[in-house]
Design goal:
Largest sheet: 2 strands, antiparallel
Distance between the termini: 64 Å
Number of helices: 16
Number of domains: 1
Keywords: Cell membrane, Electron transport, Heme, Iron, Membrane, Metal-binding, Transmembrane, Transmembrane helix, Transport
Main location: membrane
Organism: Microbacterium pygmaeum
Number of strands: 2
Protein name: Cytochrome bd-I ubiquinol oxidase subunit 2 apoprotein
Shape: globular
Strand content: under 5%
Membrane topology: Multi-pass membrane protein
Mean pLDDT: 92
Helix content: over 70%
Order of helices and strands: HHHHHHHHHHHHEHEHHH
Structural class: mainly alpha
Length: about 350
C-alpha cells in the first residue's frame, strides 16, 4: 500500500481513538446538570474521569501533529479555513481543564458551581463543533484552485454540518452517561441508567438520519468506497441500538462497550465516505479538491513517520491500557463522603 494511503487511515485511527476516549469525557461533563444533585454526587461524577481525562485529550494533539507531518496541505487548508471553530474548541478545552484543576481549590459552593458550569460548557462546545467540522470535511467546502477556503463560519453552519454536530453532541452525551453508570454506584448510577435510556432513543433517531444523509451524499458524489460506508453505517446503527438495549437491561459494561464501538464504526463510515479526498471542493470537485495524493508529504517523510509509529504507538496503547486497568474500580459515594468528612473546615 502507498504510504500516503496508509497514513490517511492512521490519522483516521487517531481521530477514532480521540472521539471514543475524549467523547465519554465530554459526555460526563455534560451530564453534571442532570446527575449532579449535590456536591457529593458532582464530585463522584467528575472523579470517574479525573485520572484519565488529560490522557484522553492527548490523542487530538498526536492526531494534529501527524496530520501536520503527513498531510501538510490538508493541515494548512483545514486550520486556516476552520480557524474560528477550532479556536473555540481549543478555548473550550482549556476552560474545561482549568475547571477540573481549580474546582476543589476552595470550599465554597458558589466557587464550585461556577467551575461546574464551565465544565459543562467546555464539554458541550467541542462535542458540537467537532461534529460540525468533520461533517463539513466529508461533505466538502468551497476551495479555490490554490486549495484555499473561500467561505466563512456561516458556510460551515449548513444543515448537514449542524446535523453532524447534533449527532456527535448526543452520541458523546449518551456515551458519557453510560460511563457514569458503569463507574459509579448508588443514586448516581441509577439516575445515569435512566438518563441514558431517554438520551439513547433520541441519539438513535438523529444518528440514523445523519448516517442516511451521509450514504446518500457519498453515492450522489460517486465516492469510490460508498459501498463500504453503507456497511460501517449499518454496523454503527446496530451497535447503537445494542448499547441502548444493554443499558435497559442493566448491563453497564456492555452498554458502554457497544457505545464505544458505535463511535468507531461511525467515524470509519465517514472516513470511507471521504476517501480518496481529504477535503473535497464544492466549487470544482475534480480540480480544486485536496486528495490523499496531492496533500501528502514525501515518501521519505512518511517512511520516517511509519517507523516512529511502529515503535511508539504500541507503547502509548500499552500505557493507556495500564492506566485504565489501575483505575478500573467504581467511584463510590461512601468514599467521597468519607473524604469530604476528613477535610477540616
Amino acid at each position: 500500500m502507498d504510504l500516503a494511503y496508509l497514513w490517511f487511515f492512521i490519522v483516521g485511527f487517531l481521530f477514532v481513538g480521540y472521539f471514543v476516549l475524549d467523547g465519554f469525557d465530554f459526555g460526563v461533563g455534560m451530564s453534571l446538570p442532570f446527575l449532579g444533585k449535590d456536591d457529593i454526587s458532582r464530585r463522584q461524577i467528575i472523579n470517574t474521569i479525573g485520572p484519565v481525562w488529560d490522557l484522553n485529550e492527548t490523542w487530538i494533539i498526536v492526531a494534529g501533529a501527524c496530520l501536520f507531518a503527513a498531510f501538510p496541505e490538508w493541515y494548512a487548508t483545514l486550520f486556516s479555513g476552520f480557524y474560528l471553530p477550532l479556536l473555540l474548541i481549543l478555548l473550550a478545552l482549556i476552560l474545561r481543564g482549568v475547571s477540573f484543576e481549580y474546582r476543589h481549590q476552595r470550599d465554597s459552593l458558589r466557587w464550585k458551581r461556577g467551575f461546574d458550569r464551565m465544565i459543562v460548557i467546555g464539554s458541550a462546545v467541542p462535542a458540537l463543533l467537532w461534529g460540525v467540522a468533520v461533517a463539513n470535511i466529508v461533505q466538502g467546502v468551497p476551495l479555490d484552485a490554490d486549495h484555499e477556503f473561500t467561505g466563512s463560519l456561516l458556510t460551515l453552519l449548513n444543515p448537514y454540518g449542524l446535523l453532524g454536530g447534533l449527532t456527535t453532541l448526543l452520541l458523546f452525551f449518551t456515551h458519557g452517561v453510560y460511563f457514569v453508570a458503569l463507574k459509579t454506584d448508588g443514586q448516581v448510577a441509577a439516575d445515569a441508567q435512566r438518563l441514558a435510556g431517554r438520551a439513547g432513543l433520541l441519539t438513535i433517531v438523529v444518528a440514523a438520519t445523519f448516517l442516511t444523509w451521509t450514504i446518500g451524499m457519498a453515492f450522489a458524489q460517486e465516492r469510490p468506497l460508498a459501498g463500504i460506508t453503507v456497511i460501517f453505517a449499518a454496523v454503527a446503527a446496530a451497535l447503537l441500538i445494542g448499547s441502548w438495549v444493554a443499558n435497559v437491561r442493566g448491563r453497564e459494561g456492555w452498554a458502554f462497550g457497544f457505545g464505544a464501538f458505535t463511535i468507531v464504526a461511525a467515524v470509519l463510515a465517514l472516513w470511507f465516505a471521504l476517501f480518496p479526498y481529504v477535503m473535497p471542493s464544492t466549487l470544482d470537485m475534480a480540480t480544486n479538491s485536496l486528495t490523499i495524493d496531492n496533500a501528502s508529504s514525501t515518501d521519505y517523510t512518511l517512511t520516517i513517520m511509519s517507523w516512529a509509529a511502529l515503535v511508539f504507538l504500541p507503547l502509548v496503547l500499552a500505557y493507556q491500557g495500564w492506566t485504565y486497568w489501575i483505575f478500573r474500580k467504581r467511584v463510590s459515594r461512601s468514599r467521597i463522603e468519607k473524604a469530604a468528612a476528613s477535610v477540616p473546615h
